Amino acid sequence: MESCFFLLLLLCFCSSIHKIFTTTTDSINTNQFITVGETIVSSGGTFELGFFSPSSSSNRYIGIWYKQILRYEQTVVWVANREQPLTNTSSAAFKVTKSGILVLFGDKNEIIWSTNTSRSVQNPVANDGNPENFLWQSFNFPTDTQLPDMKLGKNFKTGHEVYLSAWKNHNDPTPGEFTLHLDPTGYPQALIRHGTRVFARAGSWNGLRWSGAPAPQQIKSNIYTIQFVFNKEEVYFSFSIINSLLLSRLVLNNGYIERLTWVDRTKSWNNLNIPLDTCDQYSLCGAYGSCVIGSSPVCGCLEKFVPKYPQQWEMGDWSKGCVRRKPYHCNKEHIFLKYSGIKLPDTKHSQYNKTMTLEGCRQVCSMNCSCTAYSSLDISNGDRGCLFWSGELIDIRKLSGKGQDIYIRMDSSELGSKSKKAEILAVSFSLLMAMILLGIILFLYIWQKKKKLKLQDEFELPMFQLSTITRATNNFSVNNKIGEGGFGPVYKGVLEEGQQIAVKRLSRTSMQGLNEFKNEVIYIAKLQHRNLVRLLGCCLQGEEKMLIYEYMPNKSLDSYIFDQTKKKLLDWPQHFHIINGIARGLLYLHQDSRLRIIHRDLKASNVLLDIEMNPKISDFGMAKSVPGNEMGAKTCNVVGTHGYMSPEYAIDGIFSVKSDVFSFGVLVLEIVSCKRNRGFVHQDHNLNLLGHAWKLYKEDRSSELIDEHLADSCNSSQVLRSIQVGLLCVQRHPDDRPSMFSVVQMLANESLLPKAKEPGFFTERNVFDEANSVSHTGSSKTEFTITLLDPR
């Protein structure tokens, strides 16, 4: 296809191109050269080569970009002089020398960049077309982008490796610290390195996919196919486009990979890749540790393994991993236990056989005392070939039913107790399920008949006496009242030992408050994170039902950012710290907590600030959990707050982790601007805050969104990045919004961000009534959690 053909052949003296000078041919020779303002274009019109400058940079580079979409955005796919930018290009030129070398000359006719060829030719032409005559090709020297049919890997005959290296940041194509390799050490596997350290590992190729990738049915695509080749001469992987009219590329950013396809309807790149999650951090759980998304903690030992250092493990330091519960010895009998559904361990110290059967694998590994484990090499057509490991097994994660089987050498005594223990576990499990079922029946009966909560035994919460809370709040004095919600009032209190507390007191007349009360206990009692408010206990006595929390002396975020006086107490670094803290708390709820929890009512008034201004997400009365790997659900009972609800949730009742992401995006834009989304008023238009931010973004005026009091302390790069992340989070379609893992990554580094698309609820509206009833600088009392039944 032409999109592959151009980059493969351009700059290798064999491309199909034409020069935008006086010539109409599609080749350049030693008598032609390119200067600033001039370009050459591939014969099919897909790509263009010339001088360019990244946005917000005065440096110039020779690069290749998509010609077809230049009117919408300049997408650079290759850079020549990425380490030697030109600062003065009045006389710079790019040409082919008589010896067959591509050279970039600087303003003083000095050589800035050139190709390195192993032979010389007479009268070279940049359009030979015969592969045997190739002197040099850019496909062998990519930057951060892999295009269709480009091979990433290593040629064993020449020793040349083709790999990707990320840009330093979106304004600087200098090679950054992150690189993508196909590492042939042991059995080949795809690695992302941060400097010399392995940052993430996709795993080894198993005939269908990388062993750490989703199952085949989840990666089948009508857009591209993946090829993996491994023989004596070379090892590489590439992808091919099924529909030659499509534009598709794979890009390495700072710490993550994006597979992007151009969507002509929306005039934007669609990210088809699944972002890395917590368990993709290399060797997070150490040797024989298994990472499981959704578990708390995410790291656990494989069955029949125990933490090597239990005390460190309990404190969250999993780096030393696990060891066998019963060590095996070479002179004693051993067995191989099967572990299913995993991402295969690091293959750096592995050996392989491409033809052996699985039984043959077992026999060979059994005879070699240093053989730790074995697995099938190729699962594309039954189990074929073998992978053998020696030493410890590193970087394992659970992939449910999507992973592979591995057989690990164990002491034979582990087999003797297996059936007995399994029987005991089965009986215990049956008894446990019966007890749970009985508990549910009793709970529902009590709730329906008597409207009383029996939470002490169910959730093991510390119980406070009513007399203790009464004394702490001065008999629920009006002077101690600090807020009110759908559940009832909130009071500040001080326990006898001096600890400050916040007391949520359930109103006896609030049925909705009763539901919120139970919901809050169910979820927050099981959560532990520095950016979530901590539940200390409850009080259940007579008709009184109360929840006791740690007290947040700085109250809620909205009391600062929307107050004309108090907002001046926070500078930009504190604003950015709060944004990051909320993001990490939300990531924990979505990905790393024991339950996958969707908050459904994230807003400024539900973010509390401790004494050090650390943000803590609160109010889980509307929260919902979703099982397993599910990301959302649908409801007929829409709850939340106007101005923060995503379109699909407010209109169709569809809530998911992406509806929380939308709320987070609104919150980010509010934190930057110190303005409310709902009730926002502007003299030039009738857009809400999202529409105003989008308008400024499209006009390249995003810096005008920041509140004027933050101007002196702001880091312009952080501000613009925060605004763009906020706009990415509030995009109309849920699939376009990033996950919270990606959000945390985007806020933490200087990687190139994708272009934002139009936000949800991007319409002008009549704000006369709203402007008179809700001020964007008012207090949180103007903001209410609402419930909508049967959304259409």
Report on the architecture of this protein.
The chain has 17 helices and 44 strands. It is an alpha+beta fold. The chain has 6 domains: 141 residues, Agglutinin, subunit A, CATH 2.90.10.10; 130 residues, no CATH class; 138 residues, no CATH class; 34 residues; 94 residues, 2-Layer Sandwich (Phosphorylase Kinase, domain 1); 232 residues, Transferase(Phosphotransferase) domain 1 (Transferase(Phosphotransferase), domain 1). A hairpin with a 4-residue loop joins strand 20 and strand 21. The longest helix is centred in the middle third of the chain and has 33 residues. The protein is flat. The N terminus and C terminus are likely disordered.
Q: Which labels suit this protein?
A:
792 residues; alpha+beta; 17 helices
Summarize the structure.
By secondary structure, the chain is α+β, with helices and mostly antiparallel strands. The protein folds into 6 domains: 1-141, Bulb-type lectin domain (Agglutinin, subunit A); 145-274, no CATH class; 279-416, no CATH class; 417-450; 457-550, Phosphorylase Kinase, domain 1, CATH 3.30.200.20; 558-789, Transferase(Phosphotransferase), domain 1. Helices cover 22% and strands 28% of the residues.
